[in-house]
């Protein structure tokens, strides 16, 4: 007797979502979840292994997640030259800012010690 | 394993999305939803032919879904949008603004004399009742009183096919698939409306 597909979603939806979320960012994980259950529904009840529906779903989910990761990787744009980063060199204010940050830190340490229980 | 509320919310949303896509692609044998009503939560189930099942909570909704999976097909999902119109008409009925239903029905779960009886039920008007014997006579088989009772007890579409309007000859309630309290509630508000 094949259970209703709804029963399968209720039973295993959470596990599959945890799995896709462990592999992908949330929006992609949701897409992988949807694609997994759509693929399962298209095949259902078909050659469904009675004993381990969850293993079957997890296998589909891993494949869907991998597909989505590959697609994302293909969409990244490779380049020969790295983009310019920020430089601290030649900025007049940089040294002063670093010094004042340092002093602020010291002052905090100093005040903390004078406010201590031994005062 | 514990499930957090955020996860449940996310999962409900995903289930809804899955149901919408599956319905659009014609992948479902049965769509269903649950409707709150004065006679308790009702399960409404439809195929692409029309409304196929209405079930009371005392009929055990999980059992009903299982039996739909066996008899109609296992590709069953909770797909509320597919039953929006049915739910709206039932809400109107319970609010007293609707006296009959205008819905496509899928009567595949019934056949023969039972189906004949169930189809006749729509001839009993809102707020009116007939006895099991009246129904048997109307169908040209005065001796089929018990068969009429069985047909009412196996009605796949209670409320929509109004078996609650069939009583014993002495005016007592007889039986009802939704329980006698539900039958009493429906008849009382129909007569009062």
Describe, in plain words, how this protein is organized in 3D.
The complex is a heterodimer of chains A (119) and B (193). Chain A has 4 helices and no strands. Chain A has 119 residues and is mainly α. Chain A has a domain at 5-75: Orthogonal Bundle (Rna Polymerase Sigma Factor, Chain: A), CATH 1.10.1740.10. The longest helix of chain A is centred in the middle third of the chain and has 23 residues, at 53-75. The termini of chain A are far apart. Chain B is of the alpha/beta class and 193 residues long. Chain B folds into 2 domains: 5-94, Double Stranded RNA Binding Domain; 112-192, Arc Repressor Mutant, subunit A (Orthogonal Bundle), CATH 1.10.10. Chain B has 7 helices and 6 strands. Chain B has helices at 5-24, 61-71, 84-94, 112-120, 132-138, 145-153, 180-192; strands at residues 30-35, 42-47, 50-56, 76-78, 130-131, 166-167. In chain B, the strands form 2 sheets. Chain B has a 4-stranded mixed beta sheet with strand order 3-2-1-4. In chain B, strands 5-6 form a two-stranded parallel ribbon. In chain B, β2 and β3 form a beta hairpin. Chain B is globular. The N and C termini of chain B lie far apart (50 Å). The mean pLDDT of chain B is 94. Chain A binds chain B through residues 1-7, 9, 13-14, 17, 30, 33-34, 37-38, 41-42, 44-45, and chain B through 1, 3, 7, 10-11, 14-15, 17-18, 21-22, 25, 27, 30, 32, 65-66, 68-70, 74-78.
Task: Walk me through the topology.
The complex is a heterodimer of chains A (119) and B (193).
Chain A: H1 5-23, H2 26-43, H3 53-75, H4 92-114
Helix pairs in contact in A: 1-2, 1-3, 2-3
Chain B: H1 5-24, E1 30-35, E2 42-47, E3 50-56, H2 61-71, E4 76-78, H3 84-94, H4 112-120, E5 130-131, H5 132-138, H6 145-153, E6 166-167, H7 180-192
Parallel strand pairs in B: 1-4, 5-6
Antiparallel strand pairs in B: 1-2, 2-3
Helix pairs in contact in B: 4-6, 5-6
């Amino acid at each position: 007797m094949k259970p209703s597909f709804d029963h399968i979603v209720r039973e295993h939806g959470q596990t599959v979502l945890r799995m896709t979320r462990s592999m992908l960012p949330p929006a992609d994980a949701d897409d992988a979840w949807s694609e997994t259950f759509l693929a399962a529904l298209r095949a259902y009840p078909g050659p469904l292994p009675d004993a381990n529906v969850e293993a079957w779903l997890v296998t589909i989910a891993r494949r869907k997640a991998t597909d989505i990761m590959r697609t994302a990787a293909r969409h990244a744009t490779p380049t020969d030259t790295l983009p310019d980063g920020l430089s601290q060199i030649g900025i007049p204010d940089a040294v002063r800012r670093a010094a004042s940050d340092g002093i602020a830190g010291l002052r905090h340490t100093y005040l903390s010690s004078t406010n201590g229980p031994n005062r | 394993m514990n499930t957090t509320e955020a996860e449940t919310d996310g999962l409900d949303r995903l289930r809804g999305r899955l149901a919408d896509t599956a319905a659009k692609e014609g992948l479902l044998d049965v769509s269903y939803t649950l409707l709150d009503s004065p006679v308790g939560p009702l399960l409404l189930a439809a195929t692409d032919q029309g409304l196929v099942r209405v079930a009371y909570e005392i009929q055990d909704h999980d059992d009903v879904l299982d039996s739909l999976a066996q008899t109609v097909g296992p590709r069953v999902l909770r797909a509320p949008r597919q039953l929006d119109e049915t739910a709206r008409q039932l809400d109107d009925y319970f609010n007293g603004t609707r006296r009959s239903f205008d819905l496509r029905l899928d009567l595949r779960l019934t056949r023969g004399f039972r189906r004949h009886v169930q189809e006749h039920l729509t001839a009993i008007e809102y707020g009116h009742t007939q006895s099991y014997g009246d129904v048997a006579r109307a169908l040209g088989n005065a001796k089929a009183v018990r068969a009429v009772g069985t047909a009412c007890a196996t009605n796949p579409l209670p409320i929509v096919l109004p078996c609650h309007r069939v009583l014993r000859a002495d005016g007592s309630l007889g039986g009802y698939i939704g329980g006698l309290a539900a039958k009493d509630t429906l008849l009382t508000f129909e007569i009062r409306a």
